[in-house]
Amino acid sequence: MKLIENYSLKNLNTFGIEARTKYFAEIFSEEELVELLSDDKCRRERKIVLGGGSNILFTKNFNGLVIKNSISAINILKENEDSVLIEIGAGVIWNDLVNFCVERNFGGIENLTLIPGTVGAAPIQNIGAYGKELADTFYSLNGFYFENCEKKTFSKSDCKFSYRSSIFKDNLKDKFIITSIKLKLNKKYKLNTSYKTLNEYLEKAGIKKPSIRNISDAVAEIRRSKLPDPSKLGNAGSFFKNPEVNYETLEKMKSEYPDIKSFPSESGKAKLSAGWLIEICGWKGKRVGDVGTSPDHALVICNFGNAAGSEILEFAMRVKEEVANKFGITLQEEVNIL
Ligand SMILES: Cc1cc2nc3c(=O)[nH]c(=O)nc-3n(C[C@H](O)[C@H](O)[C@H](O)COP(=O)(O)OP(=O)(O)OC[C@H]3O[C@@H](n4cnc5c(N)ncnc54)[C@H](O)[C@@H]3O)c2cc1C
Fold first, then answer.
1. Which of 28, 70, 125, 336 has the greatest count of CB atoms below 10 A from its CB?
2. At what angle do helices 212-226 and 196-204 cross, to 10 degrees?
3. Which residue(s) pair with 292 in the sheet?
């Protein structure tokens, strides 16, 4: 385990922001993590975990220890004719896990194809896309409290999953490091093609009885056509969550904006498309210096050059203010801001 001082995080966040951390360490096992957390120098420091850096915005240098979690391994723990229980190291790339499952016909995460980042970060905001979320297949996770290095297992209900959130984005934010997760996948699966864009894609392609592979390929192609590739244009996907409103509010808004984009949420409310709200405020494709929204997707804020994290945040706050002024709705950040 090597502790590096004054380390640049520019290549470790998908916004491509130059920020430095006082200390940096990469861990490849739980043993290395325990050694790191027990180290006298590290014990006193504020800590954060970094996976793929695809949901984080550094607005300044970090005065503490950044732990890059690279614990990898995928193990099948139990298998019968109906299902399979897999344990995955937190440092495994999420899409590598999706491919592992798609290749073996293990159903449950194919709709989550091509979400950037690591497995360990997936529970943090209960990643979701195209009608599915992590919680649908989640079984449990292991990790350690920073404070006392105590190991703890969290069951699905302990994680308090909700739309783009969990206990780890709330009470336990930056207090706990996930080292592995377990998922229960189905061998006798029911595919979810309810999401409009996915359904339309399959219909257009003439695929009537899709396989897991068909769903995964379709999601990959839709995503590639819609979202900017962070290796070419710095971004962290959706900057804000889609706000939820009750149906009474939705009806009132519809009388003024009949084209408003909404869909039912898991909590029985209506979810409004944050991208649509931003677009109506005139911010789709708008740029201020090196910061701007994607011309294809108003919800994605991009670094078009050498923007500082603080400039991206300033831009996001202006977008947020305009949406609040026009619609009376306060957008909530999905990206973790530091
Ligand atoms: C182009 C693009 C598209 C995206 N599309 C989607 C999408 O469709 N759906 C979706 O849900 N998200 C999406 N995202 C957001 C992002 O991919 C996910 O949130 C992903 O889970 C982040 O993984 P990461 O490893 O990069 O996390 P990081 O950005 O490294 O970290 C994110 C947060 O999790 C914490 N963290 C990371 N690893 C651990 C760990 N092991 N233990 C404890 N805390 C940890 C970090 O401290 C930070 O607070 C997208 C991002 C991009 C760039």
1. 125
2. 110
3. 287, 302
Residue 193 has phi, psi (to 5 degrees) of -115, 20
Asked if 90 and 178 touch (Cβ cutoff 8 Å), the reply is yes
Asked if residues 154 and 43 have their Cβ atoms less than 8 Å apart, the reply is: no
The 8-class DSSP code of residue 110 comes to G
Handedness of CA 335, 73, 142, 37 (dihedral sign): negative
Q: Is 223 a catalytic residue?
A: no
**Mean pLDDT taken over the chain:** 95
User: Which residues, listed in sequence order, are joined to residue 67 by a DSSP beta bridge?
Assistant: 25, 49
* Greater pLDDT, 126 or 262: 126
Instruction: State the distance from the centre of ligand 1 to the C-alpha of 54, rounded, in angstroms.
Output: 5
> Contact 164/128 with Cβ under 8 angstroms?
yes
For ligand 1, pick from 115, 151, 181 the residue to mutate: most ligand atoms within 8 Å of CB. Answer: 115
Strand partners, 48: 66
Structural tokens at position 213: 């592979």
Helices (H), the chain: 30-38, 40-43, 94-103, 196-204, 212-226, 247-256, 274-280, 309-327
Nearest to 17 by CA among 240, 230, 245, 261: 230
Question: Atom 52, ligand 1: which residue's CA is nearest?
Answer: 237
**Bridge partners for 287 per DSSP:** 292
Our answer to whether residue 238 is catalytic in this structure is yes
Q: Tell the burial category of 254 from Cβ atoms under 10 Å away from its Cβ (0-12, 13-18, 19+).
A: middle
* Cα–Cα distance, 75 to 235 (Å, whole number): 32
pTM more than 0.85: yes
Tell me if residue 279 is catalytic.
no
pLDDT digits (tens, 9 = 90+) for 234-283: 999 999 999 999 999 999 999 999 899 888 887 788 999 999 999 999 99
